[in-house]
Amino acid sequence: MNSTKKLTIICNLLLLLAAIIWGINFVFSKNAAAVIGPFTFMALRYFLGASTIIPFVLFIEKRKPLEEKTKYDKKSFLSVVKLAAVMGIVQLCCAVLGQWGLAYTNASKAAFLTATYVVIVPLLAWVLFKSKANMNMWFGVALATFGLYNLCATGGESFSINPGDIMVIAGAAFGALHMLLISKYVKSINGMHLICIEFYIASIYCTIFSIILEKPSLADIMSCGTEILYASVLGSGICYMFQVTAQKHTDPTIAALLMSLESVFGAIAGVIVLGEVFTLKEILGSACVFAAVILAQLRPKEKVVLKVKKKTKDNEQLSADEPKEDDNQAE
Q1: What does pTM read for this prediction?
Q2: By C-alpha distance, which of 300, 302, 290 is closest to 113?
Q3: What distance in Å separates the CA atoms of residue 169 and residue 91, rounded to the nearest whole number?
Q4: Tens-digit pLDDT profile for residues 168-227
Q5: Which residues lie below 8 Å from residue 147, measured CB to CB, with a gap of 6+?
C-alpha cells in the first residue's frame, strides 16, 4: 500500500471519528439543555471551541513559507471582522435554535433533523444564487419532506408538530445558509481565521443574550461542565481540525458521506444512552431523511460521460483517417 493511499485511509478514519463525536454530542447537548439555557451553553461552547482551534491555526501559520503567510493591514482585518460579525449572527441562530429545540425533542430525532441541512444547501443555493439544480436535489427535497412528515408529525384526530422539531429544522436551515456564506467568501479570506473570529464574536452575542434572558448561575454551569467541555473542545475544536485536515486528502463525496453518518451515530447514542425509543413511523422518516442526505451529495455524471465518449469517438475517427492520408501522400 503506497503512502498516498494510507494517508487517504487515515483521513477517512478521522472524518468517521468526527461523525461519531458529533453524533454523541447530541446526547451531551440534550443533557445540558435540561439545566442551562441555549445562549449560556453556546456562549461557552463558542469561546472554548475557538480557543481550542487557535493553537492549531498558529501551528499551521508558522509552518507556511514566508510568501504564503496570511498578512493583514487595518482595512483587510476590519473586513474580516465585519464578515465574521454578520456570519456570527447566522451561526448564533443555527446553534441556539438547535440547542433550544433539544429541550423539547429527542436527541436521536434531532440528529436526523439537523442532517437536513445537506438537502437545504443546494435548495438555498438555487433560490439565493440561482445555481443550477439537478434532479438529485429535487428527489432529495421530496424524499426529505416525506421523511420529515413521518419523523415529526403526530397522528390522531388533529395534525400537530413538536415545536422542538421546528426549532431544530429552522436551525438546520441557518446552518445551510452559513455553509453557503463560507463557500462564497472563503476563497478570498483565510477560512480558519474567519471561523475563529466568528466563534469569538458569536460567543459575545450569546453572552449578552444569556445575561438578559437567562441569568445563568455558576452552579448550573459547573453542573454541566462535562457536557460543555465535550461540545466545545471535542465537538467544535477537535472535530473542526479533523475536518479541515482530512478534507484536503480525500474525495469530497466520500468526505460528505462519512460526515453525514453523524445523524446515525446521534440516533444510536440517543437510544443507548438516553433510552429513547423510535416508533415505526419515525424509523421510516429517519430512513427517508438519511436517504435524502445521501442523494443530495451525489452528482449526476451522465453528461460528462457522453462528452468523453464523443471525444473518444472523434479521436478514433481521426486515427482511422490518418493512415489514408499517409497512403495518398505515398502515392
Answers
A1: 0.80
A2: 290
A3: 14
A4: 999 999 988 988 888 777 777 777 888 899 999 999 999 999 999 998 899 999 999 999
A5: 112, 284, 285, 286, 287, 288, 289, 290, 291, 292
